[in-house]
């Protein structure tokens, strides 16, 4: 790449490109953060990310990639920053609840165009159910110019909450193309009852909405059935201790490991024979697309935007939501069937290239930004 990653991209008429300020509260580099980083690097515009809460390591990761970003300690600091840039007429793109709330206040007071990116809802407590309800109510207001949903299931929730259809657009997450020379990272072969060991993986935050307990429900039974099967749970979160206790109780601490949060997934894609997505709720998971691109077969609950991406036994294996026994059966069907694994692998990679390529999706985002800014200035 011969140009500076964060250099402003020229517009069609040689004028400076549109300034876009992203607002996000974050605790680490997960799916929404991965999407946002790729988005800033791929989509034309002068992108700046304001993290309303974020660890230093996350800011450093964005800066190392060439993205202009900074921490913002509260609503007052955000408004002061937006006032400094008001003359540029930046467009705000707010991500998730706190970003939406702060962005809505800023757009209201300073009359700035506002796009909301809905990555998904996790209403697992009374407070979060209220946040979901309030998010949808704010999306209905005139202050919000566009609501972009990463999955059709999220757009359906918005329609049910009476968000106007003309505001809504579905733009799924996507991945940049592999570098030249990169290819499939995994070659699943199925279990050889005499020699081969087989590794199933969970990748995500160890919290209830991601279903790590449901993963264990399926894998503990399968590990007992197949001595050649091991599992790994990559991530960290509030359920780590309870998960470890279950693994020890089952006597499988040597075969179901929890190595913690991983900065670099590439070495793991080379080892995994299947990715198991046991989430209770999802948008379009970045980790799903990464596995498809890496050539790792996916077994998943059919929740959120996952059925938009996967067709059962075509490019993945689907189980009914929260049905761990069905999830285990689907994974079991993969274990001894190398031909099925290769079939899923080939079709999944083709699906990711055809429908979830970042370059094509970035163009859709660019047109949405341009249209929103023009309408706001009209």
Note the main attributes of this structure.
378 residues; alpha/beta; Rossmann fold; 2 domains; seven-stranded parallel beta sheet; six-stranded parallel beta sheet; 14 helices; disordered N terminus
Instruction: Determine and state the CATH class of the largest domain.
Output: Alpha Beta
Beta strands, count: 13
Named CATH architecture of the largest domain: 3-Layer(aba) Sandwich
Percentage of residues assigned to helices: 40-55%
Quote the CATH topology of the largest domain.
Rossmann fold
Q: Strand sequence of the main sheet, in spatial order?
A: 3-2-1-4-5-6-7
Count of structural domains = 2
Assigned CATH superfamily of the largest domain: Glycogen Phosphorylase B
User: Helix/strand-derived class?
Assistant: alpha/beta
Map the helices and strands.
Elements: E1 19-25, H1 31-42, E2 46-53, H2 56-64, E3 68-71, H3 75-84, E4 91-95, H4 96-110, E5 114-118, H5 126-140, E6 146-149, H6 152-160, E7 168-170, E8 198-203, H7 212-225, E9 229-234, H8 240-249, E10 256-260, H9 266-269, E11 274-277, H10 286-294, E12 298-301, H11 306-309, E13 317-319, H12 324-335, H13 338-355, H14 358-377
Helix pairs in contact: 4-5, 7-12, 10-13
What does this structure look like?
The strands form two sheets. The chain has a seven-stranded parallel β-sheet, with helices on both faces. The two termini are 37 Å apart. 43% of the residues lie in helices and 17% in strands. Helix 1 links the parallel strand 1 (19-25) and strand 2 (46-53). It has 14 helices and 13 strands. Helix 4 packs parallel to helix 5, helix 7 crosses helix 12 and helix 10 crosses helix 13. It is elongated, with a radius of gyration of 21 Å. The model is unreliable at 1-15 (pLDDT under 50). It has two domains: 19-177 and 357-377, 3-Layer(aba) Sandwich (Rossmann fold), CATH 3.40.50.2000; 198-355, 3-Layer(aba) Sandwich (Rossmann fold), CATH 3.40.50. With 378 residues, it is of the alpha/beta class. It has helices at 31-42, 56-64, 75-84, 96-110, 126-140, 152-160, 212-225, 240-249, 266-269, 286-294, 306-309, 324-335, 338-355, 358-377, and strands spanning 19-25, 46-53, 68-71, 91-95, 114-118, 146-149, 168-170, 198-203, 229-234, 256-260, 274-277, 298-301, 317-319. The longest helix has 20 residues, at 358-377.
